[in-house]
Amino acid sequence: MSAIRMAISELRRITAGRLPVLAVLALLLIPMLYAGFYLYANGDPYSRLDQVPAALVVEDAGGTDADGNRQDVGEDVARELTDSGSFDFHRVSAAEADRGVRDNVYTFALTIPRDFTAALQSSADFTPRQGILVLTTNDANNYLARTIADTLTTRVRDSVAKEVGTQAADRFLTGFSTIATKTREAADGAGRLADGATQAHDGAGQLASGAGQLASGQRQLADGATQLAGGADRLAEGTGTLATGAGTAATGADRLSAGAGELATGLGTLRDATAQLPQQSRALADGARQVADGDARLAAAGSRVAQESARLADRLDAADGTIAASLRRQGFTDEQVRQALAALATAKQPLVDGNARVQEVSGQLDRLGSGAEQVADGAEQLAASAPQLTNGIASAADGAERLRDGATELSGGVRKLSDGATQLSSGATALSDGADRLVAGERTAVEGTDRLADGARRLDSGTAELATGAGQLRDGLSAGVDDIPDPAPDVREATARTIGDPVATRDVAYSQADTYGAGLAPFFMALATWIGGYVLFLLVQPLSRRAIAAGQSPLRIALGGWIPAGLLGVLQVTGMYAVVSLLLGITPVHPFATLAMLWLTSMTFTAIVHALNALLGAVGQFLGLVLMVLQLVSAGGTFPWQTIPGPLWPVHHVMPMGYAVDALRHLMYGGELAGVVGTAVPVLLAWFAAALGLATLAAYRKRVWTPSAVKPELVL
């Protein structure tokens, strides 16, 4: 039974009835429901923050600036927050805000204290103190709301700091004492930079030396890969010849089996036909002996008749002279005597002819008697050897049946040998192709190590220049401390604005997710794919017991157990992709490649869960949940994976979900595809191959029935 037929049989089993069909449909809906509802609920939460209630408390008493002008920075901030619509702000008292945050009436409260404006103006009097914005939160209300409120408070603080900083910078630009101090510190830092650059130059020299050794070793690897490719080509050619010969042998074994069957049938028929041969040959011998005795008596009688006939013929011949003499005595002329003799001869002719026939019949009777005697002797011999002949024919028929059975087994064995030789030939060809790709990769690696060695040499040269430049920077800063310029008023004003807001940001996005939900889509689609593959084996049987009992190939059994789940998993992720892209409007940059990656991810995840179930049973189901949890926390689906605890880093680098999430991000947002093709796809394929190997091992081990297999301690 082929793997495809096993898969079809399993699909028929799990869909045999209305409830099983409904169960299969429910399992198919799980990934699309999981990913669809979650992404729908979290599609763009930031666009609905204006519905989140927040308390705004303004206690700022205001103040006057150095020119006597009235300032109410707190009111300005409150008006800006209310007009922005970032949250549903409610201006309330401090007590009401505090009570509202505790009772979850307000998600958080932002308080602008009474001395906020005065604190911002304190730097002018050289009694600086910070203006405080008080953010009151309650994580019992919502943790992320606090994080978003922190971000909002930071933006407000930066806005106020920009205005205040500009004013302060304008006042302080008349003196450059701080700048001179910082310049001296910079000179000291430049000295440390020069020392570090010198050390970097030394390290770059070591790097250049090591890179040269690496390039030499890489060339040796490339030579070895070339030798491997040549050997793989010869192996592929030899296995091809083996597959052809095995196919020819299989054909000959089939013909031998058919011929042996025909021989067994013919000998069986002959055995049945000759079963009564000993009795019949004995009866034949007795009858032949009676015939021989009768023929002997008949031959003796014929011999006596022939003798009498011969004497009669002789007397008739002698009577011619007597008759002629008698006629002449009676006066007949010679002519009349001749006529009489002629008439007599005519009259005797029938007697002469009859004598000849009698003599001939006598000879035939003698020969008949002799032949009958020989037949009787032969019949005796046949009767004596007939039992041995019958037994020999029966033995030959039994041997022919055993030959037929053996030829049938030989035909099956040779056919398996032919199939194995064909698979071996395909594997050898794949090995040859892989060896060729390895040679190409090693050549690329040689070029890369050569470039690395060249870059290391240039780095060595560059760090030398860096060390020289750092020394010059140190000397220049030391010499320039006393040369700080005095800017003009307009220059001072522009400088103050720059100091107040020194950094501007310009977003450069190589790829970008449109919404929060779109940003989470790769992670939750990959997680939903694992969950979908896990629940499939609540219905699908990992391995066919019939195939195991029939002695099928372990690899064929493993494939037959995975294919149903693989097909259902592909249907699951296809439905999930349709929901995410068509209903939720999350459109990937590479739609077909994204769907193909989801297919590959589903096939890999179902293969892993299949291998765990096939190899470990109920323990394997539990391990499937454990692996899901480990990948959930280590895949880097929400925060960058580098933020996870150090002990989880190896899990991220080994487990497949992180690679699937990264690949889906690049495919959905338009990122670089080299990592998808060069890293994610090979890793998923490697996991798929490893899982299939474990399932094959499980099928091989389960050919031997153990007490725990017949009656397991735990069944889920």
TrEMBL record:
Subcellular location: Membrane
Pfam families: ABC2_membrane_3
UniProt keyword annotations, A-Z: Membrane, Transmembrane, Transmembrane helix
TM region positions: 21-41, 520-540, 561-586, 592-615, 622-641, 673-700
Broad class of where this protein is predominantly found: membrane
Annotated ranges, domain ABC-2 type transporter transmembrane: 506-695
Membrane topology note: Multi-pass membrane protein
InterPro entries to which the protein is assigned, alphabetical: ABC2_TM, Phage_infect_YhgE_C, Phage_infect_YhgE_N, T7SS_ABC-Transporter, xxxLxxG_rpt
Superkingdom assignment: Bacteria
Protein name, as recorded: YhgE/Pip domain-containing protein
Taxonomic source organism: Pseudonocardia spirodelae
